[in-house]
Design goal:
Layout (H helix, E strand, L loop, with lengths): L6 H8 L1 H10 L7 H12 L19 H16 L2 H7 L9 E2 L1 H12 L3 E6 L2 E7 L1 E4 L6 E4 L16 E2 L9
Antiparallel strand pairs: 1-6, 2-3, 4-5
Helix pairs in contact: 1-2, 5-6
């Protein structure tokens, strides 16, 4: 499976609307968007066997698998709107207010009907992991919520006192 270092070029050329959305809404907390997207694709996209170039047949062009991966990832990102799910439960970014893991988990479980794993960095909510099994290929399959498994199934957030901080505005 090829690794790519020029994802912005691939995305902006082959899928400009996807690239524009990602450039606005799917950004890292730290570092550059390019590095974040490379890490996501090279860590996750390269493990998906239906993204192998050989699965595309004669019409394959280098980078097709990148577009398919990010179209699905961004589709899930949009569908699993963590910010809106938390806001609907009264959990909003704040420099003062803190929340319990149970409050956050309950709000996010409403998104899929299945458990969610919370990731914290120094007591600050930094990510939420939703678990799915895929029936079929990544490109056309159905994502079915599943139980969380593995060594991180409990996450690493404290039971209480979790900070959900506002995002910093980045200057152009």
């Amino acid at each position: 499976m090829p690794h790519y270092a020029n994802l912005s070029a691939i995305l902006s050329t082959a899928a400009p609307e996807l690239f524009d959305f990602m450039s606005t809404y799917w950004l890292p907390n730290r570092g550059t968007a390019e590095n974040f997207w490379q890490r996501e694709y090279n860590k996750h996209g390269t493990c998906i066997n239906t993204l192998m170039p050989s699965c595309y047949g004669a019409d394959y062009a280098p980078g097709d698998e990148v577009i398919d991966f990010f179209e699905k990832a961004v589709g899930l990102f949009r569908r699993l709107d963590t910010y809106q799910a938390l806001a609907a439960a009264g959990i909003t970014p704040s420099f003062v207010q803190t929340y319990t893991a149970a409050e956050i988990e309950k709000a996010l479980t409403e998104v899929t009907g299945s458990s969610v794993v919370l990731g914290c960095w120094h007591g600050q909510l930094s990510q939420a992991w939703y678990s799915f099994n895929v029936k079929g290929s990544l490109q056309t399959g159905q994502f079915v919520p599943s139980r969380t498994v593995g060594k991180y199934w409990r996450g690493n957030c404290p039971v209480a006192g979790i900070k959900y901080l506002p995002k910093k505005l980045k200057k152009d």
